[in-house]
Design goal:
alpha+beta, Alpha-Beta Plaits, two-stranded antiparallel ribbon, 10 strands, about 30% strand, globular
Length: about 250
């Protein structure tokens, strides 16, 4: 039985309000060995992030997620962790970098560098700007301590606009209609990375809804839409990836 979308989903905002709601994010991605995970998490959750939010109020909220659905596989030993910092909407990259260099958290930065040298792997640090938000969204906003499925692509510059028009005006509205268990859908483009990365985030209200959403995505009536996506791989999409994440931390609550 198809589950109805959560009742607390909000209606679309008028366009001028919608523009004001577009988000900027700082996303930190890393891996760490399971044996070191507990010690690093204690430092990161309860020393590093609180001090960062105190010294840099331009960061409004911090969310942390761990890769989900990798139990029983070798990937469990190298699962990815994401920290998503919500930024002030009008902040520039230069202003953000100056804020991050602000004095007041020297001890935390020194400990972070120690972890960078001794335990963390595949660390990336990228800022993103929101370019799309579907009308369906929870009332507490995007990234509301929910699991999500994230699709990442790189697109040839010459095919970028054509692909984006199809993706946002045809593909995403159709998948949101076909998969009512998606609680929200929003897209981001990297601001300080080459080649450019696009992230599409599909949120769900629970891990059970996440599993149901995957089943609906593979339903027979979705075959034509999935085939349409495959037609863009090569002519437009040069790289793609997809992973699921579950929330493990949020500050402020």
């Amino acid at each position: 039985m198809v589950r109805k979308a959560a009742p607390e989903l909000a209606n679309a905002l008028p366009m001028d309000q919608e523009i004001q709601k577009m988000m900027k994010l700082l996303m930190i991605s890393l891996r760490i060995a399971p044996a070191q995970e507990a010690a690093f998490t204690e430092f990161y959750h309860h020393s590093y992030i609180p001090k960062l939010l105190e010294v840099v109020p331009e960061i409004h909220r911090a969310h942390r997620y761990e890769e989900y659905g990798v139990a029983g596989s070798l990937k469990w030993f190298t699962k990815r962790f994401l920290t998503i910092y919500e930024l002030a909407a009008n902040i520039s990259l230069d202003d953000l970098n100056r804020a991050l260099d602000r004095p007041g958290r020297e001890a935390e930065k020194s400990e972070w560098q120690r972890w960078r040298g001794e335990g963390l792997r595949d660390v990336s640090h990228t800022t993103y700007e929101q370019i799309y938000g579907h009308d369906r969204r929870p009332l507490d906003g995007w990234f509301g301590r929910r699991p999500f499925f994230m699709v990442t692509v790189e697109v040839k510059p010459e095919a970028d606009q054509e692909f984006r028009t199809w993706y946002e005006q045809v593909y995403l509205p159709k998948i949101m209609a076909d998969v009512p268990s998606w609680a929200a859908c929003h897209r981001y483009v990297s601001c300080d990375r080459q080649p450019i990365h696009y992230h599409t985030v599909y949120e769900t209200q629970s891990l059970a809804d996440l599993e149901e959403s995957f089943a609906l995505m593979r339903a027979p009536y979705r075959y034509s839409s999935n085939a349409d996506w495959d037609h863009w791989v090569g002519p437009a999409i040069t790289e793609q990836d997809a992973s699921s994440y579950r929330p493990i931390y949020c500050r402020p609550n």
